[in-house]
Amino acid sequence: TKVPRSVNMERLQNGYLFPEVNIYAQRNPHARLIRLGIGDTTEPIPDIITSAMAKQALALSTAECYKGYGPEQGNRELKRAIAETFYQDKQVKENEIFVSDGAQCDISRIQMLLDSSLSIAVQDPTFPFFPNLSIAPRTDLIFFCSPNNPTGTAASKQQLEQLVKFAKANGSIIIYDAVYAAYISDESPRSIFEIPGAKEVAIEISSFSKFAGFTGVRLGWTVVPEELLYADGYPIIKDYDRIVCTCFNGASNIVQAGGLACLSPQGFQALKATIYYYMENAKILVDTKILERAAIVTVPGIEFGPGGEGYIRVSVFGHRESVLEASRRLRKLL
């Protein structure tokens, strides 16, 4: 055709890890690779949750229960459950929650929402992972992930207070990724909205993928507070609502039924066992280093930025037998 390629796509660099993994596998066909690179969940979803999705799917075959399009922003009952489960006492309202098909898609929608000329600061995965804000320059957007991917470190309340203070002083917006919040085991905040004033400077993104095993089911949410305003005073939530209603027809009503079951008392209790399972995997792997000779796939830290040089990212989302086998192989090499 005579249509030119997007200059933005041209700027993207190749050489991501996983094609290289496939090359290694082809060259070593007899190696039993243990894949601990991508953070994909492996454990079955509890029956109470899958049963709710199955019931919703079967109901669509009846005239009485059939439903077509739902609200683009999400089922109201699910939005209420998210607010009560994760944002109790944080003053997050139902209308500020946008249910979606996952955090990755929501990040793309936020990219559509905000002008491409804006400056953005992202974490460089170093140890410690929290930036020195006293010397940081002003930026329009701050992408912040806690618990951090790939380091697993969770920001303390004091650190998040500093971050919110920095954003307010500089007129910045924090894009806060809280996908791994369910795995926080200390007193670290599980939401940016635990910090006073955060609703004036932050958007929070979260997901059912990691705590409920919904990586293939696809369900997440984003919180855009009414208090968050552009420089001219216009509410950002109104533009985000328009983006959602223009580009998205809403998460599957079957999947949303599963999300609601996740947040029921019985469903949430069942998921605690899954969360504990992956946290036990972390304990098994926490002190090990992965070498190519062990035929264990991980992600080099450099893939996450310059600060990751010399480190690797190991996913704990694996079958227990794979994690134990990886540990056995490593002990033989060390």
TrEMBL record:
InterPro entries associated with the record: Aminotransferase_I/II_large (IPR004839), DapL/ALD1 (IPR019942), PyrdxlP-dep_Trfase (IPR015424), PyrdxlP-dep_Trfase_major (IPR015421), PyrdxlP-dep_Trfase_small (IPR015422)
Enzyme Commission designation: 2.6.1.83
Pfam families the UniProt entry points to: Aminotran_1_2
GO BP terms: systemic acquired resistance, salicylic acid mediated signaling pathway
Keywords, in A-Z order: Aminotransferase, Pyridoxal phosphate, Transferase
All copies of domain Aminotransferase class I/classII large, residue ranges: 33-132, 138-286
GO molecular function: L,L-diaminopimelate aminotransferase activity; pyridoxal phosphate binding
Necessary cofactors: pyridoxal 5'-phosphate
SUPFAM superfamilies (UniProt xref): PLP-dependent transferases
Family: Belongs to the class-I pyridoxal-phosphate-dependent aminotransferase family. LL-diaminopimelate aminotransferase subfamily.
Listed name of the protein: LL-diaminopimelate aminotransferase, chloroplastic
